Amino acid sequence: MKSLNKKVSKVVSALAVAIALVGCDSGGGSSGAALALAGLGGAGYEATVIINGKLTQSGTFAKANCAGQFPANFGTFAKPLYVKLTSSKIVSGGTDFTVACASAGGNNDAAEFNITTRISASSATIKGEVFSVPDTTVCTGNPNPCDSASNYTELVGTFDMAVAVDAADPTSVSQVTFSNETGVVDPDVAASSAGLQITGTFDGTTLGSNITLITSVKGVYSNPNATVGENKCDSIGNPEIISGNISSNKTLGAFTLLRGTVTVTNGATITVPAGAVVYGERGSALFFIGANLVTNGTAANPVCFTSAQARGSRFPGDWGGLTFIGSGNNTRTAAALTEGTSPQSYPLSSGSSSSVTLNYTINEFAGTEVAPGDELNSYSQYAINNGTYNFVQAHRGLDDSFEWWGGGRGANATDVGTAASPNLTGTGGATERTFKGKFLLGTGGMDDDFDMDEGFSGALKYIIAVKYPKVCGGTPSTDPGGMEMDGVDGTTKTPSATAGDEPSNPFVDQYTLIGVNETASYAERHREGMKGLFLHGLAYAFKQIIKCESAATSGSGYGDSTSIIDGLVSDSNPDQVQTCTLTTSTGSRDTSLTSAPVASITTTQSNCGFLGFKPDLKTNVSGKTSWGGAPDTGTTLYDFDGTTVVTPTGGNSWYSGWSVWRAR
User: Fold this and answer.
1) Contact by Cβ (8 Å): 587, 567
2) From which domain of life does this come (predicted)?
3) Which residues are CB-neighbours of 149 under 8 A, at least 6 positions away?
4) How far is Cα 80 from Cα 98, in angstroms, rounded to an integer?
C-alpha cells in the first residue's frame, strides 16, 4: 500500500470516457452505450507532456545534506517545494510537489519533480514558478500543511519553458527547452547563493544534465510490434454498460463498460469469455463479495480489464481494479474494512466464500486514489481461500499489483519445510495451499508488486516484477517494492498456529524482481512476524535487496520475521536480514549482478514499453539459468508438486505474446 511521505500528486487523466473507444467492432452493447461513451472527449489538438527533473543550484547535487538542491536549505530538511506551470495553452495539470530532503543524510531524489500537463497546441511557451511554504511552517501533523498547495505562498524561483512536441520522437529531450531560470529573493526564505538550474535526476553517482520526458498526442497512437495482449486491450467495441449490484450468474459479452462501483454478491458467478474486454470508467471498480469470477482467456485470446480512457492517454489510477472478499483465514480478531470508495467488511462470515479462477488475464491502469495514500490495487484479495491464477498480469497500477490480506492457508497448519527440503506435497505443504498462482506478472506499478499480509499463506510460482522509470508517468510510492510482506495486522500481534490468526507463511518459488533504483525501494521486505519459504529468486536495481525486520524493528508486540530465503542472486545493494534465515550452499549470498538478470529489459523500461521494444525475461545469469520467474530455455518447468511438468504456450517465454508493455 502506498504511504504519503514525499508526494501527494499523481497523474490525473483529463478525459472521463474516451470517444476513441467507440468504433465499428461488434460487441455486446447498444447504441445507447455508444452514445454514453461518445458523450465526453472533446475535439481539437491535445498533447500530454510528462517531465521528470530536479531543481538544483547551478547544476550541482550531492546526497549528503542534499547539497546543491534549490534553494539552499532553509532551516529544516522536511520541506518540499511546489512547482506550477501556467500558460493559456495548458488544458490541465502542470503542478507537482518536489521531493523533500529527508534528513541530514540526504536522499538521491531530493528536489525532484514529475509533472504531467496537457497542452492544446504542438508548441507552447510556458511560465514556471517555484513556491515554498513560509519558513515558520512545519511539515508535520495530520493533515500536514505541506500537503496543501494553498500553503505554498513564497515565490522562490521562476523559469520559462518552451515546448515543441515531436510525435515521431516522443522521448527526445529537445522537445522542451528551459530559459531564464532565476532564483527569487524572498523575505521568509533565504535566497540561494547559486542560481536555479533544472537538471536531470541523480542516480547516486551522476547528476543527469537533461531532464527526461515523454509526450503523447491525443488521437495519435503508435505501438509498433504490438503484442496480442496489447491489440486486445487497445481494441474498440460497443460495450454493454453494467452498474450497481449483480446477484445472479452472468456471462459477459465481447465488450463491457463498468460504471461506478459494481458489486457481485449472493454467490453469483461472473464468467468472462476468451478475448473479452472490460473497460473501467473513472471512479469505477468491480467488487466480488462472497461471489465468484472465472476468466477463460487463452494465450491467443487473453481477457483484458482496462481503462475507458483513450488509447495512449491511459495512466495508473484511471479506474479501481478488481477486489475479492471471502471468508478464509485472516489474522484479524474483528472485522475490518477494505480500501475503496465503498469499503466493505472483511473477512466474511463462514460460508460466504469467494472463488477466483483467472486464466490469461490482464488488468491495467487500475488503482483509483480514494484519499491521499489510499488507493485500490489492481488485484485485491481479502481472505480468499479458493483462488487459482494462471498467466495473470497487473500492469501500470497506481498502488500494488497483487495484494493479499490473508487466505490460501488450507485446512492444516502451514509447513513450508526447509530450503534443503521444501514441503511440496506433505501436510501443510505447497500443494495443500488453497490459493495458488503460477506465471504472474506485475509490471510498471507505482508501489509493491506482490504484497502478502494478515496471514496470507498461498503458493506462488514463476512470478516476475518489473518497475518502470518515473518518466513513463505516475508518481511512485515512498517505498516501492518487488515484494512487501507482513505477518499479521496491528490487532493480532501475538499469533498462534490456529486457523484464524497464524501469520503469513507463503510458499514462493522461482521469482524475478527488477527495479529502477527508485529511492527507498526494496526487492523484498519481511516484517511484523512474517514467515514463508522463498526459493530460486533473482533481484536487481532496488536500493535495498532483502529487508527483514525483527520484532524490535517492526514495533511493540510484533514477533520476529522468520522467513527462509534460499540464496537470492542480486546486485551488491545492501541487505538488512536481521531475523530471517538466509541459506546458501556457499555460506554467502551471490551479489555479483552488474546488469539485469534477464536476456533483455532495459530498452523496454527506458522506452516505456513503446517503439517496438518488448522484453525477453528469460534468466541470463551464469550458473543460475534455472532460477527466476522464467528459467532459460532448456530448463523444465514444474507445478507445485515438483514432479508434474507444465508446458506453457511459448515455452519458457511464457509471458511472450499475450502480455502488455506500453506505459499508456
Assistant:
1) no
2) Bacteria
3) 82, 95, 97
4) 5
Q: Which residue has the cell 504542438?
A: 122
Residue 497: the pLDDT is 63
- Which of 231-240, 443-452, 553-562 shows the lowest mean pLDDT across its residues? 553-562
The three three-digit cell numbers of residue 552, written as one number: 524490535
Sign of CA dihedral 406, 408, 411, 414: negative
Label each residue of 19-45 as H, E or C: HHHCCCCCCCCCHHHHHHHHCCCCCCC
Output the pLDDT for position 99. 86
Q: How many secondary structure helices (H) and strands (E) does the chain include?
A: 4, 40
Query: How is 517-578 classified by DSSP, letter by letter?
Result: --TT-EEEEEESS---EEEEEEEES-SEEEEE--HHHH-TTPPPP--EEE--EE-S---B-T
**Cell numbers linked to 321:** 481494479
Cell of 529: 512476524
Instruction: Give me Rg for the CA atoms of the chain.
Output: 24
User: DSSP 3-state assignment of 304?
Assistant: strand
pTM over 0.85: no
Q: Can you tell me the mean pLDDT for 626-631?
A: 97
Whether the Cβ atoms of residue 198 and residue 55 lie closer than 8 Å to each other: yes
Are 401 and 442 in contact, with CB atoms under 8 Å apart? yes
More confident residue, 104 or 523: 523
Secondary structure class of 147 (helix, strand, coil):
helix
Checking DSSP bridges between strand 90-93 and strand 481-486, what pairing results, if any?
A: unpaired
* Cell triple for 508: 514462493
Cα–Cα dist 274/255, whole Å: 11
CA distance from start to end of the chain: 22
Is residue 365 predicted with pLDDT exceeding 60?
A: yes
- Assign 169 a pLDDT band (cuts: 50, 70, 90): confident
CA 232 to CA 628: how far, in whole Å? 28
Residue spans per domain, the chain: 45-217, 228-619
Q: What is the C-alpha separation between 395 and 442, in angstroms, rounded?
A: 6
User: 586 Cβ partners below 8 Å, 6+ apart?
Assistant: none
Return the beta strands (E) in 347-478 as ranges: 355-364, 369-371, 374-375, 379-382, 386-395, 402-405, 435-443, 450-453, 459-466
CB atoms within 10 A of CB 243: 14
Degrees (nearest 5) of the Cα angle 280, 286, 290?
Answer: 170
